[in-house]
Amino acid sequence: YQGNIRELRNILTRATVLANTNIIDCHVLDKCFKINTHKEIKDLNLKSNERLYLSQLLEKHHQDKEKVAQIAGISVRSLYRKLSE
């Protein structure tokens, strides 16, 4: 499993809830991983759109990072972090 221990624990908790019996089979795990994958895709799309938005603001405001951070309602440090993700 490639995620961290907290993610694994969450998947196993979901599997326990979704299982109709005391046995967690591959069908239940498949449902759990699909739920997790959709969330990851949604998060990835959000990050990509956020990065695009911030890049466009930087272009519009001649790379003035302080102004862009102020417009976006974030700190300059967060701006750098979001652009590097």
Structure description:
This protein has 4 helices and no strands. The protein has 85 residues and is mostly helical. The protein has one domain. The protein is rod-shaped, with a radius of gyration of 19 Å.
TL;DR of this structure?
The chain has 85 residues and is mainly alpha-helical. Helices cover 78% and strands 0% of the residues. The longest helix is centred in the middle third of the chain and has 35 residues, at 26-60.
Main traits of this protein?
mainly alpha, rod-shaped, 85 residues
Sequence-ordered SSE layout with sheet pairings:
Elements: H1 5-18, H2 26-60, H3 65-72, H4 76-84
Strand content: under 5%
| Gross geometry | rod-shaped
Compute the average pLDDT: 82
Query: Residue share in helices?
Result: over 70%
> How many helix segments?
4
Tell me about the largest β-sheet.
none
- How many domains, as an integer? 1
- How many strand elements? 0
The succession of helices and strands, N to C, reads HHHH
Runs in which pLDDT lies below 50 for 5 or more consecutive residues are none
The N- and C-terminal alpha carbons lie at a distance of: 23 Å
Instruction: Label the structural class.
Output: mainly alpha
Q: Kindly provide the radius of gyration, computed on alpha-carbon positions and rounded to a whole number of angstroms.
A: 19 Å
